[in-house]
Design a protein that fits this description.
about 500 residues; mainly alpha; 20 helices; globular
């Protein structure tokens, strides 16, 4: 079942190469829907108290101790569902509008889904590293081929300005940052397998390495090799240098899933690999990671408030949200970790419609800059209402899904030290400023000359409304995730919690 979930998107991407161009998009949509159906089938048979389930374990490279090992638990199941849900509107949005070289475009998009699902389901450390590295490859081509050069922030749309962002420089910077982190993680994974073997049989099984344990001194440097890869992927301050240019150059449907899902693989890696495998190092460097997490919250929120490019407002907002998630994980308690898992899902569900709405706003105004916008709600009440729900979720207003996730995280931080929670709480206030500013400057104020205030088409409504409906449901029923993930989250933080005592 898990292998079917992983490889179905890639299979349909390859099929799309063989059919006439006009059918490639709908083959991709069909493949994404089937993948979602398979993941729902796994959820239907999932036991929240059953530990690792639907396990597949096949010798892959016996001489090196590498297995094709897959499994799913309460931490990964909702991230798998997030992935399979998020890809459908991104593909449908592209299918409605059309794209150049469609067969290759959808192959890359679906290959990205396959590698992301593989990272969430891999239970062999080298297999996890392989999928983690492969994730960036299709997005390198998506950003590089279908992205576009853009002028500096604040420049008129289409003009080079003084801050020209070229696709080539943006994608090169992204690949350099991520590959350096990935290579460090590969070295750390090999070292963890060899050191834990202690002269015995080498294995890359995550559970076996955790059971064998790593010496404290080795944990310290291996910890940072993994942490570097995960913090770059999120991205976290100050390792986010690739993010602004890549976000500005990327095609928006691909950017939607990239920001919503791929960033969560880094946070997931901390829960799945780092905390259980390196508990002593996690405890030792807890304060350092919390400083980075809180720094991401404050820096990301402040930068989102100062930016006029809608992509960067959402991009730096994501930096802040990933800061909250990281802080929840490194609180080393159930409340913080459960809030982190809930917030990973919530943020992903909100970011996808947010970026697609940015694309729709650009179609109506001819720009993604806040300056020439305004008044789009005049003849589009449904569009404005959907964007308002997304905005309220972004700023984590009470009764929103994001509010529940941040509440859990802040509660976890209070259990560590009230100072961490108080500082992190300032990010909630800053979010209200940049989110409401974004909504007001696009939907209200006078309608500029040349802007087109028009309602959502039926097709666009069918793309956006299901995602927004899920966000609303989780706002009132967060226990759907918290209850099912509780046992797995507790086991992930239990080892490091014992060390911290």
């Amino acid at each position: 079942m898990l292998s079917s979930i992983i490889w179905t998107p890639l299979l349909f991407g390859l099929i799309g190469l063989l059919v006439p161009k006009r059918f490639a998009a709908w083959v991709a949509v069909f493949g994404a829907v089937i993948t979602l159906g398979l993941s729902i089938g796994v959820l239907a048979g999932f036991d929240p108290d059953g530990g690792m389930q639907f396990v597949t374990d096949v010798n892959w490279i016996p001489g090196l101790g590498v297995d094709y090992s897959l499994g799913i638990d309460g931490v990964s199941i909702f991230l798998v569902l997030l992935t399979t849900v998020a890809w459908i509107p991104a593909i449908c949005f592209s299918a409605i509008r059309g794209t150049e070289r469609p067969a290759l475009y959808y192959l890359m998009l679906l290959a990205g889904e396959t590698s992301t699902l593989g990272a969430f389901l891999a239970q062999d450390l080298l297999l996890f590293v392989l999928f983690f590295d492969l994730m960036i490859v299709p997005f390198y081509f998506l950003f590089g081929i279908w992205g576009r050069d853009r002028g500096g922030e604040g420049d008129p749309e289409g003009s080079p300005g003084n801050g020209l962002v070229t696709v080539q420089s943006a994608t090169l910077k992204m690949i350099v940052f991520t590959l350096i982190g990935s290579l460090l993680m590969l070295v750390g994974a090999i070292a963890a397998a060899v050191i834990s073997a202690d002269g015995g049989t080498i294995t890359f099984s995550i559970q076996t390495i955790v059971a064998r344990g790593l010496p404290g001194g080795s944990q310290n440097w291996i910890f940072w090799f993994f942490a570097a890869a995960f913090l770059v992927k999120m991205p976290a301050f100050p390792l986010h240098g690739w993010m602004p240019d890549a976000y500005r150059a990327a095609p928006l449907p691909a950017l939607a899933v990239f920001s919503a899902v791929l960033s969560k693989v880094g946070a997931y890696g901390f829960l799945r690999v780092v905390l259980p495998m390196m508990p002593d190092a996690s405890d030792l460097f807890q304060t350092t990671i919390l400083v980075l997490a809180v720094g991401s919250i404050i820096y990301g929120s402040a930068m989102a408030f100062t930016k006029t490019d809608l992509r960067l407002v959402l991009g730096f907002s994501s930096v802040a949200q990933l800061g909250f998630i990281t802080a929840g994980i490194f609180a080393f308690n159930s409340s913080g970790a459960e809030g982190a898992v809930l917030q990973m899902v919530n943020h992903g569900l909100v970011v996808v419609p947010a970026f697609l709405i940015v694309a729709m706003i650009a179609e109506r105004t001819g720009s993604e800059e806040l300056g020439p916008m305004g008044g789009l709600a005049k003849k589009a009440p449904v569009f404005a209402a959907i964007f308002l729900i997304v905005t309220m979720a972004t700023l984590a207003i009470p009764a929103s899904a994001n509010f529940i996730g941040e509440f859990y995280i802040l509660n976890g931080l209070f259990q560590v030290d009230a100072a961490w929670a108080i500082i992190a709480s300032s990010g909630v206030a800053l979010a209200a400023f940049y989110a409401l500013r974004m909504y007001q400057l696009t939907m209200h104020n006078p309608l500029p000359d040349g802007a087109d205030s028009r309602e959502l088409s039926l097709r666009d409504a069918l793309v956006l409304i299901p995602m927004v409906a899920i966000v609303v449901v989780l706002a009132f029923c967060p226990q759907l995730i918290v209850h099912s993930s509780e046992q797995a989250v507790d086991s992930s933080v239990a080892v490091v919690r014992e060390v911290a005592k």
